[in-house]
Specification:
By secondary structure, this protein is an alpha/beta fold. It is 42% helix and 22% strand. The protein has one domain: Vaccinia Virus protein VP39 (Rossmann fold). The strands form two sheets. A seven-stranded mixed sheet has the order 5-4-3-6-7-9-8, sandwiched between helices.
Length: 262
């Protein structure tokens, strides 16, 4: 068989780029991070208000429960990935105390700045540092942290397996990862009400309070595309985490996954 010869590189057949989920939309892998960045650039100014409204304040309970599961003590080191406006980071900083340290990361600069400002307003400084970083390529050495947390961020990551591998890499032996995320609720006959809230009420609240219905529609869709509890547990186990377990919170609307590097 005679192979075709291409004189111009532009005439060569182009390999089709892989697609991934952006909510219910399928987009090229290379486009997702920019689209997610756009969502959080938009919602950053009203992020905390919308969290309170969307969850009826329950997100505060979910985050307190997460911090209580960290096993952190004074002098320990912790990493909060995709930290958003810093609720988990604040709890971590109080746990490790002045002799410990917390690294706060987010891929989105506006969210990282918002988190920094909130922690400073709460009087937390000196034991916290802020780094703009991608969860899939954490700029930290191996075995650096006693605990890694990621709250409501994993579902927005393009390559979740790569992010889990990175979080495993930076954990010390005996350290633990905590993934707080929306999950598959066990609502039975009430599930249609949950769907109606997610896809009808939530975008309207986004339009009313944040002048952005589309971003909140994406957030609802991203929850449905996120792996369920058992699937995420298996993903963590494949990346080397041991003694993995999960806690269903608020009937599984949210789940906290815990895994250890032993």
């Amino acid at each position: 068989m005679i192979k075709p010869i291409y004189d111009d590189a532009e005439e060569r057949p182009q390999r089709r780029e892989r697609l991934t989920d952006f909510g219910y939309e399928r987009v090229p892998l290379s486009a997702k991070k920019q689209k997610v960045r756009g969502v959080f650039d938009s919602v950053a100014p009203r992020y905390d208000l919308m969290n309170d409204v969307m969850s009826l304040g329950l997100h505060r309970y979910w985050k307190r429960f997460t911090v209580a599961q960290t096993g952190l003590r004074a002098g320990h080191s912790a990493l909060d990935v995709a930290a958003g406006s810093g609720d988990l980071a604040l709890g971590l900083a109080r746990r490790v105390g002045r002799s410990g340290r917390v690294l706060v990361t987010d891929i989105n600069r506006r969210m990282l700045e918002r988190g920094r400002d909130r922690l400073l307003d709460a009087g937390v400084a000196g034991n916290v540092a802020y780094v703009q970083a991608d969860a899939e390529a954490l700029p930290f050495g191996d075995r650096a942290f006693h605990c890694v947390t990621i709250g409501f961020g994993l579902r927005n990551v393009t390559d979740k397996d790569k992010a889990l591998a990175e979080m495993y890499r930076v954990l010390k032996p005996g350290g633990r990862l905590l993934v707080l995320e929306f999950s598959k609720p066990l609502l039975g006959p009430l599930e249609p009400l949950y769907d109606a809230y997610s896809f009808q009420v939530l975008p309207r609240l986004g339009r009313l309070l944040a002048q952005d219905a589309a971003s909140y529609r994406y957030l609802a869709e991203s929850i449905r595309r996120h792996p369920d509890q058992r699937t995420l547990q298996r993903m963590m186990e494949r990346r080397g985490f041991e003694r993995c377990r999960y806690h269903n919170l608020s009937t599984g609307i949210v789940a906290l996954h815990v895994g250890f590097r032993l």
